[in-house]
Specification:
Strand content: 25-35%
Number of strands: 15
Radius of gyration: 20 Å
Strand order of the largest sheet: 2-1-3-4-5
CATH architecture of the largest domain: 3-Layer(aba) Sandwich
Number of domains: 2
Order of helices and strands: EHEHEHEHEHEEEEEHEEEEEH
Helix content: 25-40%
Distance between the termini: 42 Å
Low-confidence stretches: none
CATH class of the largest domain: Alpha Beta
CATH topology of the largest domain: Rossmann fold
């Protein structure tokens, strides 16, 4: 499993890399000294796992994650335990408090391997699919969200509401930009206002002016515009 170590302290990076050398299934493909360096190396090396310090000069670890389109699995490493609760709220794989103890790292690696065993390894894609996860930050709250959990995206001015579970945080992105990045086999542009996850469609009925009304498994109803209705019918084999 390819991993990248991100920490602004050289000794902290070296110590963690030394500890990780004891785990044959973890391959350290590189190290980064800050968020900008990490963003470049993530794009180049495509690691599956990040060991990520939170407090760094410039952008912090959360801000780095917010900038990534596809987010690898993340284990936070930091000397500040005040971040522990936030790390688990956003569903990080684990949280390591510095100085890192070998026993604690053992537990962490076991979680990584267990999580990997539960996720099918899809072939690489150029677009975001259901098994990809994204990092969503709205104010002080943030989440790791697997796209299969997102029922639909809703445009709201210059923002998008991401509907998953009982949450609907807003991200600063246009629906047109997002639409280009999503796998069309899994997501459908229903209208200028909505992109729906096809796996969450429960029922479909005719609607005004030749459009369609889709009921989602979460209970919401989303209109498919007349312009998109024919394409949607073909896609759903109606």
């Amino acid at each position: 499993m390819k991993a990248l170590v991100i920490d602004d302290e050289r000794l902290a990076r070296k110590e963690l890399i030394s500890l990780l050398s004891n785990y044959q299934k973890i391959e350290i493909v590189g190290e980064a000294i800050n968020a900008d360096d990490a963003e470049e190396k993530i794009a180049e090396l495509k690691p599956e796992l990040l060991f990520l310090d939170i407090q760094m000069p410039g952008r912090n670890g959360f801000e780095l994650l917010e900038s990534l389109e596809i987010v690898p699995k993340v284990i936070f490493t930091t000397a500040y335990d005040e971040y522990a609760l936030k790390a688990f709220e956003i569903n990080a794989l684990d949280y390591l408090l510095k100085p890192i103890r070998k026993e604690r790292l053992d537990e962490c690696i076991q979680k990584v391997m267990a999580d990997r065993a539960n996720v099918s390894q899809d072939a690489p894609r150029h677009k975001l699919g259901l098994r990809d996860q994204v990092f969503v930050k709205d104010g002080e709250k943030c989440w790791f969200v697997r796209l299969e959990e997102v029922r639909f995206f809703e445009s709201d001015g210059n923002y998008i509401k991401v509907h998953f579970d009982n949450q609907k945080p807003m991200i600063h992105k246009s629906l047109n930009a997002l639409d280009k990045k999503l796998d069309e086999r899994s997501f459908f542009r229903a209208s200028r206002k909505h992109i729906i996850n096809l796996s969450w469609v429960e029922s479909i009925e005719s609607w005004f002016n030749g459009g369609l009304l889709v009921k989602m498994k979460g209970g919401e109803k989303v209109e498919v515009s007349r312009r998109q209705a024919s394409k949607f019918k073909d896609l759903m084999s109606l």
